[in-house]
Automatic annotation (TrEMBL):
The keyword Disulfide bond appears for this protein: no
E.C. code: 2.1.1.-
The protein's name: Class I SAM-dependent methyltransferase
BP term (GO), one: methylation
MF term (GO), any: methyltransferase activity
Swiss-Prot/TrEMBL keywords: Methyltransferase, Transferase
Xref: InterPro entries: SAM-dependent_MTases_sf
């Protein structure tokens, strides 16, 4: 069964961003099935606050914005200015999104604002480094999502060990309820719970 998103569900900006990624040789964009899930999760948070760690050229950003309502907001962080410029140009008129260009780890260390209802960690900071900082920004009842957990031939050295360590850390926490999905590139969704009861507030 074909479980890819239907064409009618694709963000209108996606083909343009995919072509930009191809031209730039950028191969780390959000996979469409993951994007569809992100849009659905964003749609569950009317007026919600969303954080994306790793903008890339903006494919994940497009999915998140597509699912968000008009009062929701998105902060998206990317180290590579040239790559993120594609997303900034494409979404310059969308007042719901704020772009941060810089090291995600430093941003996580310094951020002192309100927590987020949905955190999508699609880069090393917030996933393989600075995990506690990222999880600390998830609001009660909020969700933390990571992808790229299924082994692939092109994984860089050390990626497999990092995934194993990440999964152990997440599944060992009493303040998050986790579900792994052997789907798309391999996903995990963790929802912040009341540690005493194990029930979302």
């Amino acid at each position: 069964m074909d479980d890819f998103p239907r064409l009618s569900q694709l963000p209108s900006s996606l083909p343009e961003l995919q072509e930009s990624a191809r031209v730039a040789g950028f191969t780390m964009s959000c996979e469409p099935r993951t994007g569809s899930l992100l849009a659905t999760l964003a749609a569950t948070r009317p007026g919600g606050r969303i954080l994306e760690l790793g903008t890339g050229v903006g494919e994940g950003t497009a999915w998140l914005l597509d699912g968000m309502n008009e009062t929701a907001t998105l902060v998206t962080v990317e180290l590579d200015d040239a790559v993120q410029a594609v997303a900034r140009d494409r979404f310059a008129e969308d007042g719901r999104v704020t772009f941060v260009t810089g090291d995600g780890g430093r941003w996580l260390e310094r951020y002192d604002g309100a927590p987020f209802d949905l955190v999508f960690a699609d880069t090393w900071p917030g996933k393989f480094t600075h995990l506690d900082a990222a999880l600390g920004l998830v609001a009660p009842g909020g969700a933390y999502v990571v992808d790229d957990l299924t082994p692939l031939p092109g994984w860089p050295e050390g990626h497999g060990a990092a995934v194993t360590e990440l999964l152990a850390a997440l599944e060992g926490r009493s303040d998050f309820r986790t579900t792994r999905l052997t789907w798309s590139t391999g996903l995990l969704i963790a929802v912040r719970t009341d540690a005493a009861t194990g029930v979302s507030p």
